[in-house]
Amino acid sequence: MSPPPNALYCQAGGVTAVINATAAAVIETCRGHPDRIGKVFAGSNGILGVLAEDLIDTSYETAETLRALRHTPGGAFGSARFRLGSFEADRRTWDRLHAVFAAHDIRYVFYNGGNGSADTARSLAQFRERFDYPITCVHVPKTVDNDLAVTDCSPGFGSAAKYLAVSLREAAADVASMVASSTKVFILEAMGRHAGWMVAAMGLAADADHHPPHLLLFAEIPFDPADFLARVHASVERFGYCVIGASEGLSDGSGRPVSALPGPHPGEEQFGGVAPYLAHLVHDRLGYKCHWATADYLQRAARHLASATDLAHAEAVGRAAVDFALDGHNGTMPVIVRESDNPYRWRIGMADLDSVATLERRLPHEFIAADRCHITPACRTYLRPLVTGESWPPFRDGLPIHAHLTNHRTPRRLPPWHSP
Questions:
Q1: Looking at 54, 57, 119, 145, which residue is catalytic?
Q2: End-to-end distance of the chain based on CA atoms, in angstroms?
Q3: Helix or strand run (H / E) with residue 407
């Protein structure tokens, strides 16, 4: 009998605090089917490693190491931002992927990413028709932005949301203690280029009316400087200080970002810098002493404060992805289906990638309060279960312990790849 075909796992896009838990779940579930799946390769730096035939043989990782991935942040195998062009326009890349798949008898692909990555996964699912090669590709969801369509939430979001809500509550307590003689305004900037889910999560920090955050600036609401300054002034007059949560993708009425830098490629923008922009605006126009912070990578790397719910989601979609593939469900994605809010109950469902790829789910209008600067009770009801529960990593000498992989490379069988 010939050995069973192999599988490929790729991490794509920005990582999360729990993406490695998904990786471990995929690999462990594949190992549970030795008669149907042989080796599990991981692309070094995602699909870029596949193109370079730089494949990590995960069979060299022990069960103990895989368990340690559950409490290890970052992307254990390396990630990449990559868009696979159409078959007609990018035939050379398609041919290279086909050659790598065939050379290593890869028949299952698990592509772990966000909505842009879902489009690449949808393309990989077309290998059956394009090359008459039996690939079964399942997209495995993750993104801190929570902007994936169809699924109730995105694995990775709950932990980032928890970190932001906790950080803002703690910082607000610090600011409140200094208002008599020092800082009057504090601004925390969160990720979310076009969707305000991360900023909404900061709203959980308020445990009573009028508690901070006093203002939330959502990506979905056009920024009006005059209105913003008036609200900041009113908050300082009433409470003595103003704590603000702001989206990195904050834009004006014409849709132009209030702060962005040129990206690495023509026509691209690198979002960020909203918090210092707002701080300068407050200082220059109102004269208040203002501090700001950007959560940046911290919000997606904070495994020490991960949500237990989020971790459960991350592992569940990894296991389900393998089950879907073994059942022949090509071009699909496991999704989280909420069955009730209180008590919180959920299950795994299935979505076709045509209903997910390139689509972006923004914060619903009913989650934004009438004053456009706070969240509604409905938003709190949605968010609370996602940040619930703690899953502490083990610590040694006061610091968290992370997994250390061998990352053993499998021998190359093809000529070197040169990017176009």
A1: 145
A2: 40
A3: none
Segment among 4-8, 69-73, 79-83, 331-335 with least mean pLDDT: 79-83
pLDDT digits (tens, 9 = 90+) for 186-202: 999 999 888 999 999 99
Q: In whole angstroms, how far apart are CA 335 and each of 73, 353, 361?
A: 22, 11, 14
Yes or no: say if 380 and 368 are a contact pair by the CB < 8 Å rule.
no
Gap between the Cα atoms of 101 and 156, Å rounded: 29
Does 145 participate in catalysis according to the annotation? yes
Closest by CA position to 87, among listed 117, 125, 118: 125
d(CA 18, CA 34): 26
Specify the amino acid at residue 86.
S
- Give ∠ CA 249-75-248 in degrees, rounded to 5: 10
Fill in the DSSP letter of residue 303. G
In which residue are the tokens 């596949």 written? 50
3-state helix, strand, coil in the chain (%, to 5): 40, 20, 45
Closest C-alpha to 41, from 64, 61, 16, 21: 61
Q: Could you give the domains of the chain?
A: 6-148+306-359+391-400 (3.40.50.450), 157-303+372-387 (3.40.50.460)
Under DSSP, the state recorded for 289 is -
d(CA 191, CA 186): 17
Q: Are 149 and 360 in contact (CB under 8 A)?
A: yes
For the segment 129-156, what is each residue's pLDDT rounded down to a tens digit? 999 999 999 999 999 999 999 999 999 9
Q: Please state, in angstroms and as integers, the Cα–Cα distance from residue 401 to each residue in 177, 392, 393, following that order.
A: 34, 11, 7
Rounded CA separation 335/321 (Å): 10
| DSSP line for 96-165 | HHHHHHHHTTEEEEEEEE-HHHHHHHHHHTTHHHHHS---EEEEEE--TT---SSSSS-TTHHHHHHHHH
